[in-house]
Amino acid sequence: MATQGAHSMVDRMVGASRLDIHIFEEVEADTAATKQALSVVLLVALATGIASMGTIGVRGLLVGVVVSVAGWAIWAWIVYFIGTKIIPEHETHADWGQLARSLGFAQSPGVLRVFGVVPGVGGIIFLVVAVWMLVSMVIAVRQALDYTSTLRAIGVVLIGFIPYAILMSIAFVIFGV
Q1: Is residue 113 part of a domain?
Q2: 102 is in which domain, residue-wise?
Q3: Is residue 20 part of a domain?
């Protein structure tokens, strides 16, 4: 069910990039926003792939998009499990879809990775955007899991990153990217 006053996907991406907690609450509650979150993940994967075409080629771009979508789903599951089963707060009530939507939109700053093609500053752009996305993910986790503690959200993201990084590394080795 869509929430009243729902913003467009672009509005939501801008809001998520601005770290607006109200946008994360909106997409968490809007079950119809899962397709939008998937679209954000695809856009970010394409932006990243375009910026990396010189090193990964077209095959790498295609595999990267598939792995990015699978990675988003896996990341949402890992965060869901850690945040709701291992270190929940008393008020934590969430499902996988809420995390998937919130974490999908948390990737919104990643569309700027396309500017990674700019010679001399591409690496800096990638680094700045990666940090921005990480902060966005912490906020998304805090809101989706109804945490009052940002430190707990940081813990979930850091703990969850370990199995996620291992799984993504294995996927990239398997697909030769």
Answers
A1: yes
A2: 9-174
A3: yes
